[in-house]
Amino acid sequence: MKKFIIAAIAITTTVFANAQADVNATQAKTEEVATTNPDRVRINLEDLPAAVKKSLTEDAFQGWTAKTAYIVKAEKPYYEVELVNAKSEANVVKFNEDGTVIK
Question: DSSP letter at 86?
Fold first, then answer.
């Protein structure tokens, strides 16, 4: 019986360790993509255009707080703003320079 319990604990520990490793690997890949894309540059929230800041205060974004912002230098540059809410849910919204949400 002791051997069975020890084996069950060992298997459970291994399963949880592998699951945590997968989560950490996914987070590392996300951060790597964000830092290796030269067309996506992190900026201060204060450096967002006034129109984007105004859009973030509208009803559609009530309950959400801007966490980080990026400017993406594409054919037509746009801004990505990472938002979080009280439940720690995350959302990324893209804006044109005039504050219009890009879908």
Answer: T
Q: H or E segment at 97?
A: none
Q: What is the mean pLDDT of each run of 10 residues along the chain (103 residues)?
A: 68 59 50 65 96 95 95 93 94 95 90
Q: How far apart are CA 77 and CA 57, in angstroms?
A: 22
The identity of residue 44, as a single letter, is N
Q: Which pair of tokens denotes residue 95? A: 């804006």
Tell if the pTM clears 0.85, that is, is over it. Answer: no
Residue ranges in 40-102 assigned as alpha helix (H): 50-56
**Do 82 and 65 contact (CB within 8 A), yes or no?**
no
Q: Which residues lie below 8 Å from residue 84, measured CB to CB, with a gap of 6+?
A: 64, 65, 67, 90, 91
